[in-house]
Amino acid sequence: MDFSRIKMVVTDMDGTLLNSNHEVSHQFYQIFEKLKERNIQFVAASGRQYHSMASKLESVKDDVLFIAENGAMIKRMNKTIMTTPLATKYIQTIINKAHSIADAHPVLCTEHTAFVGNTSDQFLTLLKEYYKEFTVVDDLSAIKEEILKIAIYHFTDSEKHLYPHLQFLENELKVKVSGAHWVDVSDSNAHKGFALEKVMTQHGITADELMVFGDYNNDLEMLQLSNYSYAMANAHPNVKKTAKYETLSNDENGVEFILNQIIQT
Predict the structure, then answer these.
(1) Strand 41-45, strand 64-68: pairing
(2) Strand ranges (DSSP E) for 188-244?
(3) CA nearest 196: which of 78, 41, 29, 23?
(4) Of all helices (H) and strands (E), which one includes residue 34?
(5) Do residues 152 and 106 lie in contact, with contact meaning Cβ atoms separated by under 8 Å?
(6) Are 216 and 239 contacting, i.e. CB atoms less than 8 angstroms apart?
(7) H or E segment at 91?
(8) Structural domains in the chain?
């Protein structure tokens, strides 16, 4: 396959660039430098908080464009380029619904931090993997900061135990099963595809010049923008249906496997 026209590479983080231990491979950093030499822009796109994404890519973060919070925010060199916040009128409804679901843990995500209610120590320990900055509060309804999205966690299965209760919001909002345990609720335009379209326009990138990797339902819109879209071997069935190609799993360095072919072109 001819990758000579690729000018931008976009990859999801969890289940895609990160292995099952939430780690970036050493091989990736070697490839990253080769991409940089070829003036190929690298974009990390995730449901994660910006601070968490940047910490995973600490040594190269100043050369990465970040699409964070499932597309609700774009940042570069710690500078915010765009935010797409959640309208205030929906927030209490989402909080109330989340609290009505057994074993559901809502997280209110803002530009600089996240807020979580008094909850189990088990959840707070888990939360540290995805949120480098968060605050525990007594009442989520009292938060006055602009909310980018509300992420809701379920220890068993988000698609079975969260999504059916939140699906009614889809007429007005974006409700995404973003992982095996997460559902994200955000503005209808706060998704990775909308954010990536803005980035593509800003950088003059076409579908033939874009390569995208993903593994879960929150990656669908951005995969549709590229003629070189890849589902991971471990991807959700919806992703495999949407992507044009498939690569190895995240634990087999599937992203690196394809990127190696770019730098050998």
Answers:
(1) parallel
(2) 210-214, 228-231
(3) 41
(4) helix 26-37
(5) yes
(6) yes
(7) helix 88-100
(8) 8-83+191-263 (3.40.50.1000), 88-187 (3.30.1240.10)
Rounded to 5 degrees, what are φ and ψ at 116? -135, 145
pLDDT of residue 32: 98
The length of the chain in residues reads 265
Residue segments in the chain with a per-residue pLDDT below the cut of 70: none
Q: Which two tokens stand for residue 105?
A: 């843990």
pTM of the model: 0.94
Q: How far is CA 171 from CA 125, 182, 197, 223, 224, in A?
A: 34, 20, 22, 22, 21
Question: pLDDT tens digit string along 148-205?
Answer: 999 999 999 999 999 999 999 999 999 999 999 999 999 999 999 999 999 999 999 9
| CB contact at 8 A, 221 and 239 | no
Beta-sheet pairing, 210-214 with 8-11: parallel
Torsion of CA 203, 205, 211, 215, to 10 degrees: 70
Please tell me the distance from the alpha carbon of residue 124 to that of residue 119, in angstroms, as a whole number.
Answer: 7
